[in-house]
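Record format v2
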Amino acid sequence: MGDTGGVSGAESEGSVRGTDGTGHRRRGNTRKRIQDVALELFAEQGYEKTSLREIAERLDVTKAALYYHFKTKEDILVSLFEDLTRPIDELIEWAGNRPRTLDTKREVLRRYSDALSGAAPLFRFMQENQATVRELSVGETFKSRMIRMMDIIKDPDAPLPDQVRCISALFTMHAGMFVLREVEGDPEEKRKAVLEVAIDLVTQAHGSTGEDRPS
Amino acid sequence: MGDTGGVSGAESEGSVRGTDGTGHRRRGNTRKRIQDVALELFAEQGYEKTSLREIAERLDVTKAALYYHFKTKEDILVSLFEDLTRPIDELIEWAGNRPRTLDTKREVLRRYSDALSGAAPLFRFMQENQATVRELSVGETFKSRMIRMMDIIKDPDAPLPDQVRCISALFTMHAGMFVLREVEGDPEEKRKAVLEVAIDLVTQAHGSTGEDRPS
Amino acid sequence: MGDTGGVSGAESEGSVRGTDGTGHRRRGNTRKRIQDVALELFAEQGYEKTSLREIAERLDVTKAALYYHFKTKEDILVSLFEDLTRPIDELIEWAGNRPRTLDTKREVLRRYSDALSGAAPLFRFMQENQATVRELSVGETFKSRMIRMMDIIKDPDAPLPDQVRCISALFTMHAGMFVLREVEGDPEEKRKAVLEVAIDLVTQAHGSTGEDRPS
Amino acid sequence: MGDTGGVSGAESEGSVRGTDGTGHRRRGNTRKRIQDVALELFAEQGYEKTSLREIAERLDVTKAALYYHFKTKEDILVSLFEDLTRPIDELIEWAGNRPRTLDTKREVLRRYSDALSGAAPLFRFMQENQATVRELSVGETFKSRMIRMMDIIKDPDAPLPDQVRCISALFTMHAGMFVLREVEGDPEEKRKAVLEVAIDLVTQAHGSTGEDRPS
DNA sequence: AATGAATGAGGATTCATTCAT
DNA sequence: GATGAATGAATCCTCATTCAT
């Protein structure tokens, strides 16, 4: 499992022995281990195909143990979502307090790209399990986030093709994450290429409306 | 569900000749009715969440009747896929026999747009159930179709951003189908806007390589 | 399949084209073909594991066609049983009208051996599906036949070991049919060896009671 | 069912400590209770005809409870087989380390008789469900056990009739178990009669080869 | 002499969840 | 902080059988 899949950034899975900062017998990492394994399996096989039995078996605990840490299966997903999408919430908040200039939008895309690659497996999961996720609570949450993102970069009064360009910019970034796994090349370079195209799209969209032109 | 969801174009669901109110002689079309209902439910709720019981109930037949017409649940999906993706197969074949000029690519996108909107629910389904579909036989088939499409419009030696533009063009068309349901506007106009953006993307990708320039 | 499996001795399965003796377009062999295939599958896989679908598929007819010829699945088995065990009925009748001398018993065993190898697959089936067959009508019939056979060769007042010898003689002949498939050697020779042992057993049983001694 | 059917010798079925009449706390022994009931039903009705529903109902638990204790239906049978055929494995091992004299063979038969009657219902089951068992994993296991037993008492270079005698000895013991239920008499006496006949058969087989003669 | 379409009953199996310990 | 044992509801699927044509 890659580190990007880790739920709490820095230390994940690996460091099992040792202290958790307080100097005590480190326990309490089970919750995170559950999240890690769940995310990995959800992303790999989908939400429905991943059973709690499977998660428990991988962790070598019983299903009942999962229920000590999470109220339901859905709750595991919710917790992942909350932990991992905070950067995006912050981005949305940050953008809310700024004028909707082209430069802002470009900066938004740059930051979004970072946020996305910091939680790639989760976003891949959301993308590949839309039908399932739609009837889960995170579905609503995710959708409203996306709508907020669109509000930020898309002008509802612009000509339709320009609106499409903005939507496309966002989706290109999402799709980029897993479609480009099929393409050769250094991941970081690919990310930059995707970002470049997304920025281009938004720039073009802006250009035709003629608000503030890029160089 | 619009008529585009119907499996064999013209008459769908509605026209049930024979005694329908009295007994239940609705001869011969049961197979198609199953496909129609299945597609509708698969697209709406996802593949896993749609049970054969539900399909059967909607049609007012028993589950066993479904098994008379299809060998397995997956088989229903396969049959839908085969029936509905024929136009895309033909498109791929057509494009295979042509030089890969910009004009060809644009024509491919135009035809692809038609093909897509002729089987919108199925494509929406494939998009929203990728995790599930990946381990189904249609998953492989679909993936190989997509790769063929990419071979047609994408130059593997072009700079990365241009390759991304091409991929983005394709995904914009896919995503356009269901994301734009959130946007106001006439469906046909939206389709045209999406197509315009996709063609633009491919054109730009082509331009920077400098093969054959558009006007 | 094999000729011993054929329901009516001489011509089975193979001769499809041609006339059925009257000079007409041979029809009416379907019933027999069903019996042949059913016996083959019953013997190979067991009664429960053999579905009517499978039988029908092998014959390239529909399940419904089977119901034209036989009232139920069980009925197919019953018909096989009736057709194939006639020789044994006749043997029992023949033996019923004779004194129970050692010579009679030996002759019974000889004839029994013939009868058995004339319907080997059916007997193999009966042996290997006793649990199933027990609750079928043929179960009762078969059991009563066996009891009659025992009455013929076994003396209820003989010492227990001698009674066992007689039972063993019969079972040796049954088991001989399929256990010896594991042993190398010419089938006809094996049959003779089995018969020899069976006769020996009955002879010994008789000897100790001292009725009429063999040479 | 007799105690010989019990899976773990001593206390079976009956002794259910805990509140049995009131609630349903009959802790810990559920696994064994499942085995007991399954064996009883398998032997009585056959493997296929015995549904997990039936087993569960008899135990007054849900089907799902069975799946807590056993992975599949087949697994229940496998567990019975493993638990109950250990004595025979030991016998085979014991015999493997000894010269193949007549005395050894006789001792083998004696011990085999004991082993058989210690797991009579299972052996009856194996005998009566051969067709079914053949495609189950225990089928292979059982067959290889039988072949090992034959290796021990049968000389592959002896004349065919003598080989048949040895096979017959083994089958007589198997068949003896359930065919003799039809014959009057004390079970223990019947067992001894069967053993005597089996030993006789092996002795005769040995005698004609002339290795080491009995008294 | 046979088919096409369907049914009702039941099969094994899996799942998320609960709760006393 | 976790387990062992169990449940209830649902899943896909298979089967023997029927009947109008």
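The CA atoms of residues 129 and 135 of chain A lie 11 Å apart.
Residues 1-6, 8-26 of chain A have pLDDT under 50 and may be disordered.
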